[in-house]
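quick one: iron/sulfur cluster bound model?
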Amino acid sequence: MKGLLTEIRHCSVCKPFLPLGANPIISASPKSKIVLASQAPGKIAHEKSIAWDDPSGRRLRAWLGVNEDTFYNPDNFAVLPLGFCFPGKGKTGDLPPRPECAPLWHQKVIDHFEADPLYILIGNHAQSYYLQDKRSLTKRIQNFEAYLPKYFVLPHPSPVNHFWMNKNKWFESDVIPQLQQEIKQRLQ
Ligand code: SF4
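yep, here:
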């Protein structure tokens, strides 16, 4: 795994399309028990070279019911976004992850896991890539149990998702307690 992570951190396959250049952000260990598959690092993550060290990350940790030490231990959580580098901004927010990245790297990382991890699919890009079903994000999350035990589907924890959270209050009251139970079991 160490050699593979070094190779990924030197990757520049889609550098011509990356406005701030390549800076792959990934974290994993052969012992990772849970994989956080999300979209791609934002500009802050690119600048700090660390994933989820922002309001989205704080909310994600609250949802998972873990502290920073547990979260940033790769033996617990692997950080495996669909694109490892910040893709730049478009008119309505961050651009989608570079399409080259996940097909090139994800399976190679997954092949190094010693046991089958739980994949937390955060947001539409990760869910569309891994699930290949036609349900909307809301429908998937309403039916989250259908994807277990391999996958747990979540919306993106970004503060810009306030509208979705307010409209779907069942998510925090019904889904989050089950997510926390699942995480607790996996981390035992
Ligand atoms: S996004 Fe992925 S494929 Fe593209 S340069 Fe970064 S690590 Fe390489």
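The chain has one domain: 2-187.
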